[in-house]
Amino acid sequence: MLVRIIGGHGGVSPGFKATSYLIDGRLLIDAGSVASGIQIEEQSHIDYVLISHSHLDHISDLAFLADNCFGMKGRPFEIYANTPVREAIKTHLLNDVIWPDFTALPNKENPTLRFHDIKPEMSLVLGDYRILPVPVNHSTGALGFIIERKNASVVFTQDTGPTDAIWEYAKQVKNLKAIFTEVSFPNALSQVARDSQHHTPATMKAEIKKMPPDVPIFLGHLKPNFQSQLFKEIEDLKDERITILGSSDTSYVF
């Protein structure tokens, strides 16, 4: 399983791209920077898109992905999200006001984007991948994902505060190779993190105790304006399992 971090930040600025993780060039998790982060030819090879929740830094490039690849694929991008997320995207983004409704272009029978509803805690199979969506502690009905292919499984939950269910599921997973999760705000902004349902290094220290042991942890969604402080505070945790996702377009093989 090749995991490419097209963008792994919780904000956008030169050198900082919003969340988009691409697995094996085919399965995309969130669309915060996929159109700006990889070449159009690579974009056109994506088959499936999982959307964790409807915040802008996770959906904005759906608009440009559809525009870039319009007429190129011969088949839709298959988009998987829960019902509130799908409705939010259709109402506020692909509404023929902010952006064309690519779920009906070039026509409803063969659209550029085709949505599928997913249910929390019900597995689905997409090609070679088995995916378990699990609710996490973030707004708009956010989901984390446990993704399995062949002999490797990986946990992804990029927007969440302290949560429980996904770690209980993760402890039951065989061949778990990596955990991708988040630290958004420095410790001094603990109330902001709590109110917005994100992590600080301090809350992540407690969260790690809930996770399966001996699995590498990759921390992303750092807010660009706090990255230097976050690096220091995360390093102060002195946990050898942690890798900080401070750069865009990096890849890992599991």
From TrEMBL:
Q: What Pfam families does its record include?
A: Lactamase_B_2 (PF12706)
Gene3D superfamilies this protein is in? Ribonuclease Z/Hydroxyacylglutathione hydrolase-like
Q: Which domain of life is it from?
A: Bacteria
**GO biological process terms on file:** cAMP catabolic process
Q: Name one GO molecular function term.
A: 3',5'-cyclic-AMP phosphodiesterase activity
Q: Which residues cross the membrane?
A: none
Q: Which InterPro entries match?
A: Metallo-B-lactamas (IPR001279), Pdiesterase2 (IPR000396), RibonucZ/Hydroxyglut_hydro (IPR036866)
**Any idea what this protein is called?**
Uncharacterized protein
The protein's organism comes out as Bacteriovorax stolpii
Lineage, highest ranks first: Bacteria, Pseudomonadati, Bdellovibrionota, Bacteriovoracia, Bacteriovoracales
